[in-house]
Amino acid sequence: MRLFTTVAALRCFLDLSRGKQPRSDEATEVLMGNPSLTVGLVPTMGALHGGHLSLIKRARRENKIVVVTIFVNPLQFGPNEDFDRYPRTLKADREFCKQANVDVIFAPTPQDIGIDHQQPTQVMPPQSMMSVMCSVSRPGHFEGVATIVTKLLNLVQPDRAYFGQKDAQQLAIIQRLVADLNLPIEVVPCEIVRESSGLALSSRNQYLSLEERNQAIALYRGLSQAEKAFRSGERLSANLIQAVKTELEKVPAMKSEYVELVNPITLAPLDQVEDRGLLAIAARLGTTRLIDNIRLQTRQPIVAIDGPAGAGKSTVVKLVAQALGLLYLDTGAMYRALTWLVLKSGVAIDDEPEIAELVSRCSIEFVNQPDSTRILINGQDVTEAIRTLEVTAQVSAIAAQAAVRKVLVRQQQQFGQRGGIVVEGRDIGTNVFPDAELKIFLTASVQERARRRQQDLKNQGKEEVDLKQLEQLIADRDRKDSTRTISPLRKADDAIELQTDPLSIDDVVKTIVRLYQDRA
Ligand code: AMP
Question: Which atom of ligand 1 approaches the CA of 162 most closely?
């Protein structure tokens, strides 16, 4: 692991890693840049704990290089805030990062990073996102956050940047910033990590006395009470907020700063929750300011089924959807529909910019009919047309293009907004619907998948293929799928693995239906 404190060193390391700059001893080996070298950034203020670790672990899984920045950002502290006493524990943080297999810590001083002068250029998030929640008592805070995050994103130029849901307003503002400034970065939101008591982990918890630690649990208790009321059908903000306040009021030492219910993306205050809301609190215990939040959503559950090719996902997904009365979101059909459009438009399969243009402008719809689901692209029904050999032959080449994947994943997420879907793929539970209620990782041994494939071919009256040869093909495909730069095959941490070697399709479907019902 490397630790850098200067911009020059960080840039030099990243340039060398990306192969953009020749090493002095390899002057002739000027590479064009290494596109498969993905970089994940985890910005922190240090005093690292389990919450940070969850971000680092996720970044570690998803990227070749993990950069953790440790910087107590003066721009985001007000004059009477805890900038001077904020815990600075670089030595321990260094060990923490080493254990977590981080590649680089970037820990600059304000001078190193160029914000020591009086009036640095600032990034200004939308006023509407800064008139609520923490902005009210912390004027200037989010300008400071947005400015430093923009600097870090520019310096590191990561593929992905990881932020905790714990700081929900910060997360929403950064997501907006990245979208509004067209930064080519994926913002990855990470769930709140809590102690077993429910208290959200925070570097500021160090300030709490033992008594205050116990009192601080009221934040989570309040949110949990509101969630309970929400689950029983309460939708009015005033009542949900009151449920939180009632719990907070039980701790006289707790001085509530705000309890607000807002739209989690725009942060606009809500009178009632239509489909989703963010219920957030800030409160003071003694001199310590604590924040916490919870998301409330009414959408129906999502079942995400991932797993290696040939494990039976596409057969199972339709049957599960039928058995549960949910909609089968056929993501494969979306890629096929686009492939059909590309072929029809006469665009070359490898003309990625032209295909990016096409996919960004196309509209795909699923229309439910009594006996089938039709798929339309730009208003044209292509349900049958997408099953031709020509489309089948080209669909993987098109689905592998980054721009195509990005746009279609966004569309899938839009289809999933109301929930009530079953969907299968390679990265549905990890990337497309990380908040799916039920995630299944359907798998089978290479030998079993080869045997099933051989049987399928036989049933289709095709020439017999050697079992060993099929095993080899399947093993090669597994390797390719799990090492892809874009959306590799990976079991989500919270997915349930179903090894289907000894199971019939009927058994698999019944198991998934039972798991779904157990969770309901
Ligand atoms: P901080 O060091 O407090 O600025 O936090 C750095 C990042 O870690 C931010 O994206 C936080 O949202 C995230 N984070 C802090 N605490 C937690 C937690 N308990 N669970 C998940 N993420 C967290």
Answer: 10
